[in-house]
Design brief:
With 171 residues, the protein is mainly α. It has one domain. It contains six helices and no strands. It is globular and about 55 Å long. The two termini are 30 Å apart.
Length: 171
């Protein structure tokens, strides 16, 4: 009996489940293993993957805003902070996917690392606006860096094998 690889749709569903779990689990009293960090920000994987897959419709941005608002609610911060971070990661990911368009993991990973670093920079600008000047975004930065390191392992959940090889062309 030969085992078949999961379909693209099944992988995408698992990727969405992981993104939702990464928003909900840190808010539950499950201990330090489920806190962020060390739990990655899987929504950043989804944002970059959907951007690289040329998700130009309304579903990806709306899903990211909804996940961001849920994250804001569960984290107890001002509404819009995580929504802005996740939506900006999507927009930056659109540009990074075009610039880093070689069909190899190093290029895709490099694009994700750039997207993550810019997301951290945006957090440094936006977080003080909503939380005050003395806020630290160090935990977000650490979780984002863990997310960047783990990207090659989870890439198939968010991007097809040929993602970003021909940006702007639907497959």
């Amino acid at each position: 009996m030969a085992l078949r690889a999961p379909s693209r749709g099944v992988l995408r569903v698992w990727g969405l489940v992981l993104a939702v779990a990464s928003v909900i689990l840190p808010a539950l009293p499950l201990g330090p293993v489920f806190a962020q960090p060390p739990l990655p920000l899987a929504v950043l994987w989804a944002a970059y993957g959907w951007a690289a897959e040329d998700e130009t419709g309304w579903r990806a941005p709306v899903a990211l805003v909804m996940l961001g608002l849920l994250h804001d609610q569960l984290a107890g911060g001002p509404y819009g902070l995580f929504a802005v971070l996740y939506l900006s990661a999507y927009l930056v990911g659109r540009v990074a996917a075009v610039v880093m368009s070689a069909p190899n993991l190093v290029s895709l990973w490099g694009g994700f690392i750039v997207t993550t670093l810019i997301s951290i920079g945006i957090a440094y600008v936006v977080a003080p606006l909503g939380l005050g000047r003395n806020v630290s975004v160090m935990l977000y930065a650490q979780a984002a860096l863990i997310t960047a390191i783990l990207f090659p392992i989870v890439r198939p959940l968010y991007m097809s094998a040929g993602a970003a090889t021909r940006p702007g062309v639907r497959r």
